[in-house]
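Q: Got a minute? One more chain.
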Amino acid sequence: NRVMRWNKQNVINLVSKSNHLPAPLNPPAPEIYRLPHPPPQLPKISIPPTLTLTPSPRHSNFVNFLENNLPHHQTLSPQSLIGFLRSKLRHHPLFAHYDFAVFNWAATLDTFRHDHESFLWMSRSLAATHRFDDLYRLLSFVAANPCPCSSGIFSCPHLEPIFRSAVDAYCRAGKMDYALLVFDTMKRLIDGKPNVGFYNTVMNGYVKSGDMDKALRFYKRMGKERAKPDVCTFNILINGYCRSSKFDMALDLFREMKKKGCEPNVVSFNTLIRGFLGKGKIEEGVKMAYEMVELGCRFSEATCEILVDGLCREGRVDDASGLVIDLSRKKVLPAGFDCGGLVEKLCGENKADRGMEMVEELWKNGQTPCLIACTTLVEGLRKSGSREKASGFMEKMMNEGMLPDSVTFNLLLRDLCDSGRSIDANRLRILASRKGFEPDETTYYVLVSGFTKEGRRKEGEVLVNEMLDNDMLPDIFTYNRLMDGLSRAAAGNFPKKQVRLL
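A: Always. Here it is, folded:
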C-alpha cells in the first residue's frame, strides 16, 4: 500500500483556516531581520465557522489532487515545488489560490528549505494576483529565513529581485506605505546599495499617486545615500512636475539633468512636449521639439504623434501638416510615423490639397505613406471636386504597388465617368488589373454605364463580353439589355439622361 504523503486532516485544516489562504508561517525572527514596527495595519481575516468534522468533497478532491501531483515530501526540493506550482496548480480552476498554503506547508518539512528561486516565484505570483497581505507575510518570512546560498555575513545576492517585484506591485496598487516599508527592509538585508532602478520604482509610485512632495524627498534621499540618479530618475520627476503643471520646475530639472552629466533621451523630451501641449502651451512644445532636433536626439513615432495630436486638438491642422513637412525635409521624421490621422483631419476640413502636398512631400523624401492615408486622400480629393488630382494620385499609388479597396476605386471611376472621362476611367482599371487589383461587377457596370452615356459602343461591348467571360452576368437577358443599351446610345435613339447603371 502506498503511504499517503499528505495527512488528510492536516489538509482539511489547511484549506479551512481562511476564506482564501491559511495564515503563513511566522517563526521567530532574529532582531536584525525584523521588519520595522509598527507595520501597516493588515485587514483581519474572518474565520468561517466549521459546522461539521466530515471532510467536504472539495477537501477530498484537493487531497487527491496533491497525492497525484505533488512530489514526495522526502524528495521535495525548491525546483520540484516550483514545477508543481507552475505547471499543476497555477491554472487549476479550483485550487490555484492555495499556492501560498502549499508553499507554507513545504516550509514546515524538516527535509525542505526554501531558496531564492522559490521565494522569487511566490513573490511574483502573489504580486501578480494582488494578494498584498500575503505578499507582506511572505517578505516577513524571507527576512527571517535567509536563503541557503547566503554564507556567513554575506546575504543572498538574489534578494533584490524578490523585493523589487513586491515594491513594484505595491506601487502600482498605490500602497506606498507598504512599498517604502519593503524597500527599507530590503535595503538592510542586502550587501551594498540598492540598484538605482529600485529607487526609481518607489519614486515613480509617488508620482503616479499624485504625491510629488514625497517623490522629491525620496530623490533627496537618493543623494544622501549616494545613489547616482540616471535618466529614468529625471524623467520620472519631470513627468511629476508636468502632471502638476509646474513647467518651470520641469525645465529647471531638465537643465539640472544636463549639468549632472545625464543626457536627456527621447522620453525626456516626449514628457515635456506632452506636458506643454496638454496644457495648451503649443509654442513651448514645438520649440522643445526643435531643440530636440538641434541636440541630435532621435525623433520617435510617439514624439510626432504627441506634436500632431496636440496641434490638431487646438484646431491647427495646417500647422501640424507644416511641421510634418518640415521634419521630413530635415530627415528626422521617423519612417514608422503614420500620417493617416492627419490626412483625415485635413480632408475633414476640406483641405485635401494641403493633405496631398504633405503626402507628396513625404514620398519625395523617401517616406512612403500608408495605404489608409492614401485612400483617405483620394476620397477627400474626390469629394472636394478635384477629380483630376484624385485620378493622378490613384495612378501614382498603383505604380508604387499600393492597391486601393474596391469601394474607393469604384467611386473614383464613377466620378470620372460622370464627368465624361470614361476612357480615363477604363485606363485606370487596366492599370489596376496589371498591378493585381481584381475588378468586381460594380467596376464593370460603372464603366459600361459611362461608355453608354458617351455613345462608345465598341469600348462598352468589350467590357460586356469580359463580364460574360468572367461569369459576372446573372443571365442572358442582362447581357442583351446591356448590349442593346450600347447600340441605341451609339445610334442616338434615346436621350443620355435615360441611361442608368444596371
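A: The first helix runs from residue 8 to 16.
Q: Perfect, thanks.
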